[in-house]
Amino acid sequence: MLEQDFPRDFGSLEPIFGFVRSFLAARGIDDRHAWDLDLIVEELFTNMVKYAPGRHPIRVGLDWERPVLTVQLRDFGVPAFDPTRAPKPDVEAPVSERRAGGLGIHLVRSIADALEYQHRDGDSVVTVRKRLDP
Amino acid sequence: MFEIQVVEQGLVRLTGRLDASQSDHAQSVLAELHHSLTLDCAQLDYISSAGIGVLMETYKRLTARGQTVRLVNLLPRVRNVFAYAGLDRIFTIE
C-alpha cells in the first residue's frame, strides 16, 4: 500500500487529490476513476478533520489489486469514531427537513463496494474498497 | 481551483472543484444573493457533500422567500452526486 501523511486541514485536499492522480497514473488506471476516488477520500478525510479530536496528520493509503482499489485512512491516537454507524440521512425527505450531516458517508456508501471501520492500537482506520471497471 | 462568478442578475457560473476547502467561499458569495438563481454548472468538474450543503442551504433560503434555484448544464459525474443525495428530485436540474 502506498501511504502518505497529510495535515488535518481542508487545505490538504488539493495535495491529496494530486496523490490519488499520481497513484492512478503510475499504475495505468484510467483517470475517469479519479472523480469517484477523490469524493471517497475527501468525505473520509473531512469527516476525521471535523469530528475526531486528533492532533496528528492523517495517513492516506492506496492499494491496487486488479480490479479492486483500496483506500485506507488512518487517524492516529483518537477515540473510536465509527462512520459506518453514522445515521443514514433521509434522502427522500423534503428539503426543509434535510441536514447536511451524514451526507458524506452516504455518498461514500453509494460509490464504494465496501466500507469498513476498525479501532486498533488507538488509531481509527477506515477502509473502502471499490471495483474499477476496465 | 474553484471560481464562483455572478455573471449577471440571477445568473451564477461555477467553475472547477467545489470541495470542502472552497465551500465557505461559495457560501459567502451566494449569501449575498436574494433573488431567483440559475447556477450554470457547465464548468463545474467536481462537487462533494460540502458543496452540496452550500447549494442546499441556498435553495432553502431562497425558496423560503418564494424564489427559485435552477441548476443547468451539469456534467454527468456531478449530476450523479446530486442523484445519490436524492436532490435531483428537489432542485430544478436542466
What does the model show?
The complex is a heterodimer of chains A (134) and B (94). Chain A is of the alpha+beta class and 134 residues long. Chain A has one domain (2-131): Histidine kinase-like ATPase, C-terminal domain (Heat Shock Protein 90, 2-Layer Sandwich), CATH 3.30.565. Helix content of chain A is 31%, strand content 28%. Chain A has helices at 13-26, 34-51, 103-111, and strands at residues 2-6, 58-65, 68-75, 114-120, 123-131. Chain A has a 5-stranded antiparallel beta sheet with strand order 1-2-3-5-4. Chain B is an alpha/beta fold. Chain B has a single domain (2-93), classed as Transcription Regulator spoIIAA (2-Layer Sandwich). Helix content of chain B is 34%, strand content 34%. The radius of gyration of chain B is 12 Å and the shape is globular. Chain B starts with a strand and ends with a strand. The chains are: A alpha+beta (134), B alpha/beta (94).
SS element count, helices of chain B: 3
How many strands in all of chain B? 5
Spans of chain A with pLDDT under 50 lasting ≥5 residues? none
The CATH class of chain A turns out to be: Alpha Beta
**Approximately what portion of the residues of chain B adopt beta-strand conformation?**
25-35%
Question: What is the SS-derived class of chain A?
Answer: alpha+beta
Sheet with the most strands: spatial strand order of chain B: 1-2-3-4-5
Structure described in brief:
With 134 residues, chain A is an alpha+beta fold. Helix content of chain A is 31%, strand content 28%.
Question: Topology of this protein?
Answer:
The complex is a heterodimer of chains A (134) and B (94).
Chain A: E1 2-6, H1 13-26, H2 34-51, E2 58-65, E3 68-75, H3 103-111, E4 114-120, E5 123-131
Antiparallel strand pairs in A: 1-2, 2-3, 3-5, 4-5
Chain B: E1 2-8, E2 11-18, H1 23-30, E3 37-47, H2 49-63, E4 69-72, H3 76-84, E5 92-93
Parallel strand pairs in B: 2-3, 3-4, 4-5
Antiparallel strand pairs in B: 1-2
